[in-house]
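Please fill in the sequence for the structure shown.

STRUCTURE ENCODING:
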């Protein structure tokens, strides 16, 4: 079949739809993908103009094979989300060259709807959502254009119709969003491009957190029931690192897999909610001693929380923290003690010797810990985002030579010395503090709030937290990283366009916080609207969570929406066309009420004769109108002159028409 069977307007909208659908993906794809689409679009246009032909079978087969090879070399695999989406996009482009009839074009349009949805696997923000609404309108316009006859050459009519259809579907969409059951997914997918996401790692080496602290990206938001605690209490635990290889701290998987330890919690409680950004990992952020009844979480032995699935999108959860927490006060097993004292034999000899001196001078573990903290406070240590590069014995060089470092240097060195002195200790990584957004009353915790501190096990007390950074730079804990780095001027030095750098500029900061509050509400009310939130909404609005009653209500509301939309669809259409067509349609609408409307295939003179027979008293008015109509439609007269005569003739005929259809005449016309 010929390509001419695809209307030109439909092809124009289809090419426009491809551009709109492809744009959100281009930032993740190689540059040659855009060039390939331009080539496919140009070829398709030449086919439409009947200058070029369709690619042959050999060329199509070669193109398909090259597509698979290109995806493999670009992504390193043909399996996985990134590779699958890229393959779909390339096939979406190449399908342009195979469209021979409207049915083929329908396949391309439906594939466009599917690819439109894949963009939400990578981002669910407000800007993309609004943009995808535009994409849906353009795709529907292409679908409408495909059904239009070539004679109706009005591309904007298709766009207006598409927008109207989606607006009419909006109430039904809102009902489905609010009332459709939130079912658990049957499978999970790995987050795309996790290696490019900024965030905490499950290892910690010298300068790792210092590098992370140069990022202005958001880690999570936290809101509280009641007053927000002071910064000194806002230690957000994520990971504990118990293994040390001489340079890098990492998790001990064996300790992590053990059953949660018994924790003694007492004092005032603090309820809070966290909306975590996607990381591709499953660790979460919690205050010390937190518990959560969410079925999507589990508690680990080291007093941290984990999600059951990697965070491939924003993830919300609630937890409760206690004012006083005692962990593992009764003692450690011998295996745990050995693992929490583990150190490489050939690393940091000066730190080992110093630890032995401290051990000889201080009989109790608590005294030794306090002595070490006083050492950091009294000696000329410096807190900096620009620490010098350290060699093989990193702790020795930091403690006795450079004395310049970020939080990971202090936490790592203190943990090493405590272990060398025979005190079980581990590094804790997470975030500390946060920025208050007064518009929403919640905390913003960024990547530059990343922090490391230590925990030591003390007899009779269990695990106790200590922060050597506070001894060197208390302003970091009390007022945040920006204040601590003000003199050095290194805060977000590598991110000159970050909004957090301009907190001192009032209108910029207000704009930033307002936009963040909008995004927070979007994530809280829309993206985080899961089964628990849905049931709470039902109980608050309906006083019940019974799905049978909810089902009856939903069906009633859906029926009401459909009735309203049907009434809108059945309302009298506004007349459109040339002056002669408008007059014809207006007369037809009036005569339809008398049962005398124009019949299919009936011309003006035939209709005129039938009306003269049915309405003998109006013959003169009928003849006057139809004579003027034929003159304007078929005779070569000036439009203004003909219109001036047609309109009065129509009004004369309409005024003369009876309210009811008269009985059929007994005699035929002369």
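FILLED IN BY: designer on duty
SEQUENCE:
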């Amino acid at each position: 079949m010929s390509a001419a069977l695809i209307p030109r307007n439909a092809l124009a909208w289809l090419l426009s739809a491809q551009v709109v659908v492809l744009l959100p993906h281009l930032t993740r794809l190689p540059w040659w993908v855009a060039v390939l689409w331009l080539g496919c679009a140009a070829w398709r246009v030449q086919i439409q103009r009947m200058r070029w032909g369709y690619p042959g079978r050999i060329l199509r087969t070669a193109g398909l094979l090259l597509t698979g090879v290109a995806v493999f070399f670009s992504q390193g695999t043909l399996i996985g989300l990134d590779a699958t989406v890229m393959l779909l996009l390339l096939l979406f482009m190449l399908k342009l060259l195979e469209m021979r009839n409207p049915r083929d074009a329908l396949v391309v349009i439906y594939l466009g709807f599917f690819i439109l949805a894949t963009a939400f696997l990578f981002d669910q923000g407000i800007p993309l959502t609004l943009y995808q609404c535009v994409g849906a309108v353009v795709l529907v316009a292409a679908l409408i254009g495909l059904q239009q006859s070539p004679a109706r050459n009005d591309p904007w009519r298709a766009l207006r119709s598409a927008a109207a259809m989606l607006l009419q579907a909006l109430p039904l969409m809102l009902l489905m969003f609010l009332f459709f059951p939130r079912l658990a997914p049957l499978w999970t997918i790995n987050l795309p491009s996790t290696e490019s996401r900024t965030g905490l790692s499950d290892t910690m080496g010298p300068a790792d957190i210092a590098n992370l602290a140069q990022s202005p990206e958001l880690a999570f938001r936290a809101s509280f029931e009641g007053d927000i605690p002071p910064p000194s209490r806002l230690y957000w635990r994520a990971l504990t690192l118990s293994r040390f290889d001489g340079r890098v701290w990492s998790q001990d998987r064996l300790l992590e897999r053990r059953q949660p330890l018994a924790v003694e919690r007492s004092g005032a409680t603090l309820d809070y909610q966290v909306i975590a950004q996607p990381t591709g990992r499953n660790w979460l952020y919690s205050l010390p001693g937190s518990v959560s009844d969410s079925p999507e979480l589990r508690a680990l032995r080291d007093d941290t929380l984990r999600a059951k699935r990697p965070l491939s999108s924003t993830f919300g959860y609630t937890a409760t923290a206690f004012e006083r927490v005692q962990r593992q006060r009764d003692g450690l097993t011998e295996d745990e003690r050995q693992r929490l004292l583990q150190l490489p034999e050939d690393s940091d000899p000066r730190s080992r010797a110093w630890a032995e001196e401290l051990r000889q001078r201080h009989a109790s573990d608590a005294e030794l810990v306090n002595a070490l903290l006083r050492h950091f406070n009294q000696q000329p240590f410096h807190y900096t985002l620009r620490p010098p590069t350290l060699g093989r014995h990193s702790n020795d060089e930091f403690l006795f030579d450079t004395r310049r470092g970020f939080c990971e240097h202090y936490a790592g060195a203190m943990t090493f010395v405590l272990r060398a002195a025979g005190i079980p200790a581990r590094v804790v990584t997470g975030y500390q503090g946060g920025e208050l957004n007064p518009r929403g009353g919640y905390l913003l915790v960024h990547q530059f709030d990343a922090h490391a501190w230590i925990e030591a096990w003390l007899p009779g007390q269990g695990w106790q937290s200590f922060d050597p950074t506070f001894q060197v730079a208390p302003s970091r804990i009390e007022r945040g990283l920006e204040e601590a780095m003000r003199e050095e001027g290194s805060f977000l030095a590598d991110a000159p366009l970050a909004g957090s750098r301009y907190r001192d500029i009032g209108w910029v900061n207000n704009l930033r916080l307002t936009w963040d509050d909008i995004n927070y509400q979007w994530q809280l009310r829309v993206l985080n609207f899961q089964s628990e939130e849905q049931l709470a909404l039902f109980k608050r609005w309906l006083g019940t969570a019974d799905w049978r009653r909810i089902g009856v209500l939903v069906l009633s509301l859906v029926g009401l929406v459909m009735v309203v939309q049907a009434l809108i669809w059945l309302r009298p259409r506004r007349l459109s066309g040339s002056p002669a067509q408008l007059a014809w349609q207006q007369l037809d609408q009036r005569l339809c009420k008398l049962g005398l409307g124009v019949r299919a295939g009936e011309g003006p003179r035939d209709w005129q004769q039938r009306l003269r027979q049915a309405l003998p008293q109006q013959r003169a008015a009928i003849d006057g109108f139809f004579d003027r109509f034929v003159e304007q439609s078929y005779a070569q007269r000036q439009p203004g002159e003909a219109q001036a005569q047609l309109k009065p003739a129509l009004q004369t005929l309409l005024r003369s028409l009876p309210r009811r259809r008269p009985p059929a005449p007994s005699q035929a016309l002369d």
